[in-house]
């Protein structure tokens, strides 16, 4: 079939299918986010227009925003579908690098198709081209190499024959999943080749389920049997495997208290007697207490990042780790007994090997005992009070109204700590806290992608005023396209959580909260978030107090569904009230300072580092 590079790429995209958790098939690539410009409007743009009846194309307003929306699709579908984003060359392409970082840090699938400069070089330097004096092959798209799991520059049409199978491999492989960047020079996009029809045959990508090595399985089982205080940690890999049910049955059979990581939140029903809560800095004291006492930790589907491990101070110094992970890279970390396997298959086989073994009943009962204490603490934080609403109270209102099919999101600032630590699961795998990259702006753009992916329930994203101001243009994109979700905007006068970090480590309040920022005005202007959101085509529901919030949120939910556009709830919130899990986090406090408060904070860092353990197995 004589096709241009762009036509062949688009036809291949259409031919890829995916098997969902219920066994049905769907497009692997449900749609494309596109901003056309110099570098992709003629080649790829024309190819997409030819199939516009079969492949939805949504226009973003900012390349970073639309690529983050594509990431949101990957997370909301538990990596079963992949968002695609294309841009022009130069600044348009570079705007997507941050989104690639989000996908890479969170091990999420994303296909980026940035335009690139001419391979023929006849018009050099072309508009928007950055010239490298000693390397004419380098372009701005090389910036994607650091944040791509797979990168290729397509310099010949027939190159697609070898690179597209690798693209599919990376996007669907549970061990290697991450962003793929195909840089597309604009002259090559328009060149043609006689492609074999076999390239465009329908392919159904089914989830790979590698089974564990028999000897590694026996070693892991031996370690677990020796435990008197074992703890099961569930991460995102359990979610993406669809193994939540398997993990819970595993815990029930062996009497294991269960805690969750950020990516593993809402895998366990909140009230289950084995649920001990979320782990780490933004987690719960209940989970952290058990982690400090555990002698064996079974880490399933998690890379155990610093917020989960409290910078590696949350566990006992003599703890033994068993890491079940599809990626060997993650499984061998920290001297773990590595069990490289799909979470569902690995837990199934581990159950068979352990047989009737159970943890001591007194240890098993600790999960519910400790979590009940944490639940009482969260309930007290949610109780009505005078003054501005706190984040905990706002989360409580959203939580109480939400149902089992609803989906809740956040990404940055203080709200991740409130959702991770304080949310009570209403359904399985119904939370997206982007805390691998903690990207400001993902809250709105990612919610657009999640709204596209979700066919049932309401998507609600919670964000601060800082994230709103940083990247809000995709509110208009979602309103224009007809994708409804609820955005709860908490206005606390600036970057309050970073102010907390700054002052909590001895620094003076500086350049975070608006009163501490430079201005020539005696009374600086304030953002009218309600008016701004309305101007972008959103339904708007201001809440002047905690008492008004529930009604405003309920109306917003109704409007998002009925009017098929974002509904924004705006509420002023307290700038310094937080949910605390009592864990430590290592940060770079200066060794030398003019402030005694910073010197004291540095001493606390040294005390924390003395508790830090490097596990060697």
Primary descriptors:
Rossmann fold; 617 residues; six-stranded parallel sheet; 17% strand; 24 helices; 4 domains; alpha/beta; globular
Structure described in brief:
This protein is α/β, with parallel strands linked by helices. It is 39% helix and 17% strand.
Can you give a write-up of this model?
- The protein is 39% helix and 17% strand.
- It has 617 residues and is of the alpha/beta class.
- Helix 23 (546-563) links the parallel strand 22 and strand 23.
- Helix 3 packs parallel to helix 5, helix 11 runs antiparallel to helix 15 and helix 16 (391-401) crosses helix 17 (415-422).
- The termini are far apart.
- InterPro entries: DHS-like_NAD/FAD-binding_dom, Myo_inos_IolD, THDP-binding, Thiamin_PyroP_enz_cen_dom, Thiamin_PyroP_enz_TPP-bd_dom, TPP_enz, TPP_enzyme_TPP-bd.
- Write down how many β-strands occur, each being a DSSP E stretch of 2 or more residues: 23
Radius of gyration, Cα only, in angstroms? 25 Å
Shape: globular
The side-by-side strand order for the widest beta sheet comes to 5-4-6-7-9-8
The proportion of residues forming helix, as a percent range, comes to: 25-40%
Number of helices: 24
CATH class of the largest domain: Alpha Beta
- CATH level-3 fold name of the largest domain: Rossmann fold
């Amino acid at each position: 079939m004589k096709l241009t590079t762009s036509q062949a790429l688009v036809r291949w995209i259409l031919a890829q299918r995916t098997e969902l958790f219920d066994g049905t098939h769907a497009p692997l690539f449900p749609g494309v986010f596109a901003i056309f410009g110099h570098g992709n409007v003629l080649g790829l743009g024309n190819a997409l227009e030819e199939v516009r009846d079969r492949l939805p194309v949504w226009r973003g307003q900012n390349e970073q925003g639309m690529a983050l929306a594509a990431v949101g699709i990957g997370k909301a579908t538990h990596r079963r579908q992949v968002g695609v984003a294309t841009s022009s060359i130069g600044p348009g392409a570079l705007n997507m690098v941050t989104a690639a970082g989000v996908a890479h840090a969170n091990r999420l699938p994303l296909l980026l198709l940035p335009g690139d400069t001419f391979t023929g070089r006849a018009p050099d330097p072309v508009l928007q081209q950055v010239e490298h004096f000693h390397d004419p092959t380098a372009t701005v798209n090389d910036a994607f190499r650091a944040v791509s799991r797979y990168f290729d520059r397509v310099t010949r049409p027939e190159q697609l024959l070898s690179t597209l199978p690798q693209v599919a491999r990376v996007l669907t492989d549970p061990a290697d999943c991450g962003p793929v960047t195909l840089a597309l020079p604009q002259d090559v996009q328009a060149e043609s080749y006689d492609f074999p029809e076999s390239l465009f045959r329908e392919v159904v990508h089914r989830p790979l389920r590698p089974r564990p090595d028999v000897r590694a399985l026996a070693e892991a089982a031996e370690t677990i049997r020796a435990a008197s205080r074992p703890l099961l940690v569930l991460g995102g890999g359990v979610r993406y495997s669809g193994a939540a049910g398997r993990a819970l049955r595993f815990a029930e059979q062996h009497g294991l208290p269960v805690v969750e990581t950020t990516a593993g939140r809402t895998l366990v029903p909140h009230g289950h007697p084995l649920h001990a809560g979320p782990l780490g800095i933004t987690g719960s004291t209940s989970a952290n207490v058990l982690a400090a006492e555990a002698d064996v930790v079974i880490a399933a589907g998690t890379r155990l990042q610093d917020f989960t491990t409290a910078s590696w101070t949350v566990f006992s110094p003599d703890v033994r780790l068993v890491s079940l992970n599809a990626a060997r890279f993650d499984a061998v970390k920290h001297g773990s007994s590595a069990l490289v396997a799909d979470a569902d298959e690995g837990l199934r086989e581990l159950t068979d090997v352990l047989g009737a073994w159970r943890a001591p009943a007194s240890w098993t009962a600790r999960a519910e005992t400790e979590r009940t204490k944490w639940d009482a603490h969260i309930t007290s934080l949610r109780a009505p009070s005078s003054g501005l609403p706190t984040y905990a109270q706002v989360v409580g209102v959203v939580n109480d109204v939400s149902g089992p099919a609803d989906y809740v999101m956040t990404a940055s600032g203080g709200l991740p700590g409130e959702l991770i630590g304080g949310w009570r699961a209403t359904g399985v795998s119904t939370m997206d806290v982007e805390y691998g990259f903690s990207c400001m702006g993902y809250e709105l753009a990612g919610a657009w992608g999640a709204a596209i992916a979700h066919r049932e329930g309401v998507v609600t994203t919670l964000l601060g005023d800082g994230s709103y101001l940083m990247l809000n243009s995709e509110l208009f994109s979602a309103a224009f396209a007809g994708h409804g979700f609820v955005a709860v905007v908490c206005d606390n006068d600036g970057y309050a959580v970073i102010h907390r970090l700054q002052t909590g480590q001895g620094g003076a309040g500086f350049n975070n909260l608006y009163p501490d920022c430079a201005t020539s005005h005696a009374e600086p202007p304030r953002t009218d978030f309600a008016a701004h959101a309305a101007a972008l085509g959103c339904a708007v529901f201001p809440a002047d107090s905690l008492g008004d919030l529930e009604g405003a949120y309920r109306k917003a939910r109704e409007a998002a569904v009925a009017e098929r556009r974002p509904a924004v709830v705006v509420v002023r919130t307290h700038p310094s009230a937080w949910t605390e899990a009592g864990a430590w986090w290592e940060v770079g406090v200066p060794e030398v300072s003019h402030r005694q408060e910073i010197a004291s904070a540095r001493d606390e860092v040294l005390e924390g580092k003395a508790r830090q353990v490097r596990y060697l197995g």
